[in-house]
From TrEMBL:
Organism: Corynebacterium lactis RW2-5
Domain Acyl-CoA dehydrogenase/oxidase N-terminal: 19-128
PANTHER family: GLUTARYL-COA DEHYDROGENASE, MITOCHONDRIAL
Keyword field contains Ligase: no
Protein name (record): Acyl-CoA dehydrogenase
Domain Acyl-CoA oxidase/dehydrogenase middle: 132-222
Family membership noted in the UniProt record: Belongs to the acyl-CoA dehydrogenase family.
Amino acid sequence: MATYTPTQLIGLDNMLTLEERQICDTVREFCDRDLRPHIEDWFEDHTIPRDLGPVFGQMGVLGMHLDGYGCAGTSAVAYGLACMELEAVDSGIRSFVSVQGSLAMYAIHRWGSEEQKQQWLPQMAEGKAIGCFGLTEPDFGSNPAGMRTYAKRDGDDWVISGSKMWITNGSLADVAVVWAKTDDGYAGFLVEKDTPGFTTHDIARKMSLRASITSELVLDNVRVPDSARLPEVNSLRGPLSCLNEARFGIMFGALGAARDCIDQTLEYVKERQVFDKPLSSYQLTQAKLADMVLELDKGILLALQLGRLKDEGKLPHESISLGKLNSTREAIQIARTCRTLLGASGITTEYSPIRHANNLESVLTYEGTAEMHQLILGNALTGEAAFR
C-alpha cells in the first residue's frame, strides 16, 4: 500500500503556482544543504553566525516580498512558504530572516524616505547590512503605547533615551529601527550601531531560540539627525503594521517546525521496535500521527488561503491573528506529542521535536501572545474590546 507525506494528503503542490513550488524547493534544498547540518551546534552554542546574512542575501529571501531596491518582489504566499522551510530547520533561522525583512526592511520600505530606502534596503537585501526592530521594552510588550523610550527634538536633531528588550539580531545589527514616544505621538528612528550612547547587551541562558541572538538595546541620550526619522508615520500604526508582516511569516513558519517534527517522528516510529513490532504498527501511535497531520494540514490550508487574500490586498489584520494563533498553538502541541513518540530519545537534540518545542514557546508569545490574538478575534466577533 502506498504511503503519503502529510502534505500529499491535501495535494499541496497542486495548489501552488510553478514559481511558488520552485521557490519552496530551492529554499528547502538550501536549508538541507547549508543549515540543517549545523543547527544542533548553533543551538547548543547559543549563537547564529553573522555571516549567514550574505548567504541569505544570495538566496534572495531577505525582504523577498518587498518591491524594488534589490528585493525580489515575490508573492506573499511564496514568502510564507520560504518561512515554512526556514523554520523547519529552526525558529531562530526564520526569526533572523523575518526580523530583517518583515520588521526592519518593511519599516523602511513602508515608512521611510527615498533617501533612507536607497541607503539601506539594497545592502539589507544582500545581507551586507543587518537590521533589528526595537519596539518591546522590559515593562511593555503587549501594550506598546506605554513605552518609556522618548525622543525629544533639539534643533535639527533628536535625542533618544530609553531601552528595548528581547530584540532579535540586536547586537548583530548595523542599524536598529527604534520606536519612541515624542511630543507629537510616536516615531521610528534609524539608529546606526556606532552612534554614541547606543549599546547592546546579549541575553544569555535562554532555553528557547538559542540559535538566535536576542539583545537589550540601551539608548543613553542618543543624538540622531532628523534625517534618521522615518518621515511617513507619527503613530503606533507604524510599528503595528510591521508586526502584522512578521505575524504573517510566523503563521507559515510555525507549521514548518510542526512538519519537521512529524517527518522525523515518522522515520523513527517505523524503525523503532517495541515488543518485536515497529512502533508505527500500534493503534495509539497511528492515532497520534493522524491527529497531528490533521492539524498540520488544516493549518496549511488556512495559511494558504490567508496568503491568497494578502496577495489580493484583502487580508484584514484580524485574519492574521487567526492564522498566527492557530499555527503556533497547534505547532507546539504537535512538537510535544512527537516528543512522546520518541520516548527518551526525544529529550536530545539528535531529534528536532524538543528543540522545536522549546523554540515554539517563544513563537507562541512573540509578535503578540496567544491571549492577545484571542482578544483581537473576540473584538472582531463581538465589537467589544476586552483588552483592559
